[in-house]
Design goal:
- This protein is mostly helical and 501 residues long.
- Helix content is 80%, strand content 0%.
- The protein is built from 18 helices and no strands.
- The radius of gyration is 25 Å and the shape is elongated.
- It starts with a helix and ends with a helix.
Length: 501
């Protein structure tokens, strides 16, 4: 039996093993998730003090746990997708790293400004009493969780923040009318549908262009890598140091802007200095090929992925536990809606566990969509996606622009894909089209011959980004807020009728 035949058989066995694992996870996941929801219910029953509205807190806890599962299943794919798609991490390794970092971020630095979920969207002084406010938050949680669950099933990465915002809008309108909503906030969120992916895509494309011209297109790639890879690692360390100090650790530390910049410069210098001997050791005897040089970006990509997961857990856990914390606060105050919202540790723990569990049970599908199905990624492209995601959030925050981390990450994947496509097709256009084309070019071209050459070039054009994903993901982004809002309105009136409020 030939070596190629053996390789094909081994590949079939690997595909069968992968399919078996996926089927086993798909069969076990709903049961495990149900056990988690029941555990959350029991946990809340013991944690909540008895009172006339305590049953609403218990119900809201189960809904928040359900939302946390869906955030883990959908949102985390944006961080893990590039590392898995580039083969820097296996699916199992990615799930383990993400689960640990997401939970750590949520527990150590999560839940910052949970009260802004209502204050930034619902007009202060709107005619929503304490009980109605609790039902608004419950309807917002449930509608956003249902929408994110549906998006995960169809394989569309969406913004869970936008889903929660849509839920609050829909339930708020159902409770107090259109005047209860701060519409300029919603307009800013709508603007982020364009701003976020464009900024992420442009920055990722710029980074990939820099790597191409400084390393990959140089005659001596290894020599160039020894100079530029430490620089790029230093940039990554500096950006992530600033990102973590402003976003990932915002609950426990909020430094001033000049302190953040100083942290970034110092961390970047340390990263550059540390990376030099590491790169030198790794490049000893290395082949002068793009594939070999690309392996130098594997460890930076894994570290970037872990840091993104930590920051995501710290920030987006509020999408699940923020409304729940507001409900707990309202119940503790006898139905009064206060200005500030405390975050009980048991509420944060449910969010952290839900994120990690949702990722482990339901995350692989979205990870493969982001990492494999949109465009082909390798270590270098994955590094550009991860770094651009963090850098774009930093720049947007400094400029006060509303952005979505989900949209940025997916936009960055599209950005590197379209850039590759542009480079590839430029090379095709610069080549002779065919022997027949060369003959026709040296003769007097007639209209039919020109059309034949054009058609030949079109046939050779390469599409390196799957267009159906551009349309499906874009459509899911656009309808997230209105779909969550509509669901929330319906759920609000159902709860009002069901609870007799």
């Amino acid at each position: 039996m030939s070596k190629s035949a053996i390789d094909k058989d081994l590949k079939r066995v690997q595909q069968l093993h992968k399919a078996t694992q996926d089927n086993s996870r798909a069969m076990a996941a709903p049961g495990i998730a149900l056990v988690f929801l029941l555990a959350a219910l029991v946990w809340a029953a013991f944690a909540v003090s008895s009172g006339p509205l305590s049953y609403l807190v218990i119900i809201a806890t189960v809904i928040a746990a359900y939302m946390a599962l869906n955030i883990g299943a959908n949102d985390v794919a944006n961080n893990m997708g590039p590392a898995v798609g580039s083969r820097a991490l296996t699916m199992t390794g990615a799930l383990a790293i993400a689960a640990i970092c997401e939970a750590a971020g949520a527990l150590l630095a999560g839940g910052d400004v949970v009260g802004t979920i209502s204050r930034d969207i619902i007009v202060p002084g709107a005619h929503i009493d304490g009980t109605a406010f609790i039902v608004v938050m419950m309807a917002a949680l449930l509608s956003s969780a249902l929408w994110v669950n549906l998006a995960t099933i169809i394989g569309a990465p969406v913004s869970t923040t936008h889903a929660v915002v849509g839920g609050v809008v829909g339930a708020g309108v159902a409770a107090a009318g259109m005047s209860a909503i701060v519409w300029p906030t919603i307009a800013m969120i709508a603007a982020s549908w364009v701003i976020s992916p464009v900024m992420g895509g442009l920055l990722a494309a710029i980074l990939l262009t820099i790597v191409n011209f400084t390393i990959l297109r140089q005659k001596e790639k290894v020599v160039s890598a020894r100079v530029w890879v430490p620089v790029l690692v230093g940039v990554m360390v500096g950006v992530f140091a600033m990102y973590m100090s402003t976003k990932g650790l915002s609950r426990i530390w909020k430094p001033e802007g000049h302190i953040v910049l100083l942290i970034g410069l110092l961390a970047g210098g340390i990263g550059w200095y540390t990376a030099q001997p590491w790169v030198m050791a790794r490049t000893e005897g290395m082949d002068n090929s793009s594939k070999q040089v690309g392996t130098l970006f594997r460890l930076p990509l894994i570290l970037a992925t872990a840091l993104l997961s930590f920051a995501h857990g710290a920030n987006d856990v509020a999408n699940a536990v923020g409304p729940l914390a507001a409900i707990v606060s309202a119940v503790q105050q006898g139905g009064e809606v206060g200005g500030s919202v405390a975050l009980p540790i048991w509420v944060l723990a449910i969010g952290a566990l839900g994120l990690a569990l949702g990722l482990a049970l339901f995350g692989p599908r979205l990870i493969r969509t982001v990492g494999e199905k949109i465009t082909k990624l390798n270590e270098i492209r994955g590094y550009c996606v991860a770094l651009s995601a963090a850098a774009t959030v930093l720049v947007a925050s400094a400029l006060g622009l509303p952005v979505s981390s989900t949209h940025i990450a997916v936009g960055a994947v599209f950005g590197v894909g379209f850039l590759r496509e542009g480079f590839s097709n430029q090379g095709i256009r610069n080549k002779a089209v065919s022997p027949e084309g060369i003959f026709l070019r040296t003769s007097h071209l007639n209209k039919t011959a020109e059309e034949a050459v054009t058609n030949y070039q079109k046939r050779r054009r390469r599409y390196l980004v799957r267009r159906q994903h551009v349309l499906s993901i874009g459509a899911a982004w656009i309808i997230t807020v209105p779909a969550s809002a509509l669901l929330a309105g319906l759920i609000f009136w159902t709860m009002v009728a069901l609870f007799g409020l």
